[in-house]
Amino acid sequence: MIKTLVLSSTVGRSPSEVLLSFVFDEIVRLPRRGCEVHVARYRHEGDVYAYGIYFHDLQILQSLTSLLRVNKLAYYPLSALLRSPRALCLELAYSEHVVNLIKKLNPNMLHAHFAYPEGYVAYLAVRSLNRKIPLIITLHGYDILTEPRSGYGIRRNRRYDVLVKKVLNEANAVIAASRAMYEEAKRIMDDPSKLHLIHNGVNLQRFNPSVDGSMIRKLYNAEDKAIVFTLRHHEPKYGIAYLILAAKVILRRKKDVLFIIGGDGSLRNYHMKLTRQLGISNRVLFSGRIPQKEVSMYYAASDVVVVPSLQEAWGLVATEAMACGKPVVATRVGGLPDQVIEGFNGFLVPPRDPKALADKILYLLENPSEARRMGLNGRRLAEEKFDIEKRVDKIVELYRTLIEGTR
């Protein structure tokens, strides 16, 4: 039997929690495939068994006693010790939590989501116990890719860069969801044969073309308007300002368009101010955070979905939109070219180019038959390549291969 200890420091414990929901959507499918799943979190909400998963939270006493386990510092590159004491304390406390769980549970697989801190914490735990347990690291973007102009990527700091490089080379297997992550990991790994390209996936039942979006259209009084939708955190790397600038261009030519921007974040007020300055605040609406159960309805209500990111490890918004049968206009960065095929299920444009965004969005709005064709193609592509069930099958197969190799 596969008994896996998953490291995901802040993953939620139910489908309704937005934080790291893509991790939850994956691990919740493991018990159905015969896996016993335990999750080590760096949260203090208490242990719980939910949705077939055992969630183990860090205890306050563990956090304090871990500071005495200075022997783990021997497993750090020297330059990585010259960081903030807070970061070191976090890593030591989390690794002590994982050490205790390994002793208690005796798992035959460790799976860390993100190379840092989870991956390095898992490495510290295994080294300090001197146990032979296979370690898989799934890369999610911030831990491997960088975009200096928007401040994206932990590897911009060389003291974290050295930790990421070390743990990727120590792991038994590394999963990359996109070609961009795969190629960057390959560049810094000594043994690329440990690297596996397994695309992200979505729930094709939850996100499908038959979802009814009429409630959303009524909510925004948009029964007679075209809707352009994006769902993004309001943070620099997601390029929302460029979509707003594109909206100004589009609305000069086509008045019956409504832009809905979902999500929250530090730049939301700035983006709202920008729409007022451009005189389009009545045509660009901000929904705020959208409950998980309503997300598919927003896609269903949309005519075009836009992903204007400056860097994007994968871009789950594009996958969800495709699964709902919607054409996608996205930037040519990160994992988006893995999903959007030019002229087939949408368009790719350069980042930071509002005119290019506007041109492609306008083309789809003015050519509805082409938009429908691309939407259908997107759904077929999602069924073929981006089904989360297929992704989880491949991960479980990798578990079995690694466990067999350690016997």
Structural notes for this entry:
With 407 residues, the protein is an alpha/beta fold. The protein has 2 domains: 2-201 and 387-405, Glycogen Phosphorylase B (Rossmann fold); 214-385, Glycogen Phosphorylase B (Rossmann fold, 3-Layer(aba) Sandwich). 43% of the residues lie in helices and 16% in strands. The protein is built from 15 helices and 14 strands.
Distance from first to last alpha carbon: 13 Å
Q: Please provide the ordered H/E string of secondary-structure elements.
A: EHEEEHHEHEHEHEHEHEHEHEHEHEHHH
Q: Give me the Rg, rounded.
A: 22 Å
Output mean pLDDT: 95
Annotated CATH topology of the largest domain: Rossmann fold
The CATH homologous superfamily of the largest domain is called: Glycogen Phosphorylase B
Number of strands: 14
CATH architecture annotation of the largest domain:
3-Layer(aba) Sandwich
**Main pleated sheet:** 8 strands, mixed
Spans of at least 5 consecutive residues whose pLDDT stays below 50 are: none
Task: Give the helix proportion (percent range).
Answer: 40-55%
Level-1 CATH class name of the largest domain: Alpha Beta
Number of helices: 15
Structural class: alpha/beta
The structural domain count equals 2
General shape: globular
Widest β-sheet, arrangement of strands? 3-4-2-1-5-6-7-8
Strand content: 15-25%
